[in-house]
Amino acid sequence: MAEVPGTEPPATRAARRAFVVGIVGLPVWWVLGLASAVPLLVTVPMAWDLWTRRGLRVPRHFGWWLLFLVWVVIGVGTLWATAPGTADAGGGTRILVFGFRLLWYVACTVMLLWIGNTPARFVPDRLLHRVFGSVFVVAVVGGLIGVLLPDLAVTTLAERVLPGGLRSNEFVRTLVSAEFADVQKVLGDEGARPKAPFPYTNTWGSVMALSLVYFLAAAARVQRRWHPAVVAVLAVAVVPVVLSLNRGLWLALIAAAAGVLALAALRRHTLALAGLVGVLVFLGVAITSTPLGETVFSRLDHPHSNDRRSQLIVATIASMSEGSPAVGYGSTRDAAGTFTSIAGGATADCAACGVPPLGTQGQLWLVLFSQGWIGAAFFLTFFVLALARTVRCQTLNATVATFVVGIFLLQLTVYDTLGLPMMLVMAAVGLAWREREEGARLHLPSGPAVAIVAGSALLGAVVALVDLSPGDRLASTVTIALTTAPTYLDVGADTSGPEVDAIADVTTTSSVDTEAALLFSERALTRAGNRSDLTPRELRRGMTLAAPPLSTVIEVTMTTSAPRDPSTAALAVAEEYLAERQRFLDARRDDLAARLATNLAATDPLDPAWSTSRDYLRAAIDHLTTHHPEVGRIIRVSDVHRVADDRSVPVTTGGGLGGLLGVGLTAVAGHRPRRSRWQR
């Protein structure tokens, strides 16, 4: 930026001091339970400083980020829409999380603009490198304590003063608590995964990789007498990095090391290249010849989260693409059931048996699910173009930006990076932009342009509202309690003996999902359709299936267009399903009885050694042929009720696409912007 002669404005001085205190004082804020809020508060004096400026500028390609922010804001329109494959549970928590994320996006934007518009003589590059580099030192210390004392935790001031209702909220509790590590089973036994001073282990890993770049940039400018301290910090960092079992962090560090090697080779810095190779060789030998190496290899041999991550990604993309591909759902959603059962869920003994919310386990998946394909395209375009501006690494700030943004893009698929990690990225982009002294003046759109965009958005919303307005729809739910297959096929005798188990080895287990598949069978739906005057296709299209977690209850909801009675159709489907299930389990019982009879015939009636087995087999066959428990029963049929047509997704989509069309029209028409207070 072109520097204007003069003394440092009071607002700039206040913003700079708030920035230093807020970031360097991170350990203090963490102990107080304010570590997730203080970085947000730091940007308030920055925003005021920008408001008092004249000639405010924005970086090139900033329009893509503005479009993304608009897409985030309009996501509030779909915040309570039910996404396919998710549980319909919202409430005040959803808007709380949405507002928290929106504040972070705005705070990161303010950080970018403040650094880029503040002359380097007021906020020097060295100051920014050292402040953000201090975060790396804090993370190293917190990680080391987390490894050594994994159960150590501090009761924060925020935990003491917050109302009980807020403290009971898991999201809020995580943000205000101060725990040094999470104890998890990753390698079979419980082990510590450090996270201090952050709420999550993956946030710790993300910040470690990103802040390391700032730490090295600051170290490049310190006096020689500080070099031993730098080496000591890096050496100590190896311990929590390895013991964290954080593969995302390992990948980021390996990629960064490869990038440094490539850069040194291209620049023909022989000494730097040799030194880096020597350090890598030393680390490799040290790790492979110490217990740290065993930890690394064990972690690579136990990719316990890979399957669940991939299933979550598939479910996230499928749900968003089916329900709201253009604008997403504004925030995450809880999945219905688990990946193996519609009635599955977490238990006290197996918290990992549940499924993380759709849109988590990676910032990219959060953006995709919350803002749709279009919002994700805006988001990625901004950061890819920012990386393209600095990738030649011609200066220190450009190198910092290249590595920070590059690591950030690598982390998108594995880390939820919204928070301090994204703030570190925006700061790097702002530093490189300020150094290049480029960009455009911030201006307000002209009156005609605002009218065109607003009119197009309104027209798009109205068209979506009108075109997608069906007639009245009615719904009714039938609740069915099932007798599980092992109970229904009980042979009525003690089957604990190994000899008996070998003779009567018959698999009788069946999940709720397997048996619920009978509900959609062609024969059951054809019979139900004959009773309700609906085709099997209409029944499938109007039927939804749910099951309370960890239960043997199925809830069948039938939705029809008025004046058809959904309760008649739902009851017919439920009764025909139970009849089909009766035939299915009777066939399994007859098959089991026949197999037991075959086993009985194969025994020697004159051999006393077979007497126990023969008694068991005869009793089992008799029990199976005389005992016929019910396969299930209908326990409730709900009253018919009108289904409110949820038009939030089409209306929000129509408004968003209409607004984009309006932006394109104003660009083609070439409307001149009006002068803003920042241009006067």
TrEMBL record:
Record's superkingdom? Bacteria
Q: Which keywords belong to this entry?
A: Membrane, Transmembrane, Transmembrane helix
The residue ranges crossing the membrane are 28-50, 62-83, 95-115, 127-149, 203-219, 226-243, 249-266, 273-292, 364-388, 418-434, 446-466
Is this entry keyworded rRNA processing?
Answer: no
**Is this entry keyworded Iron-sulfur?**
no
Instruction: Indicate what this protein is called per its UniProt record.
Output: Uncharacterized protein
Which species?
A: Nocardioides aromaticivorans
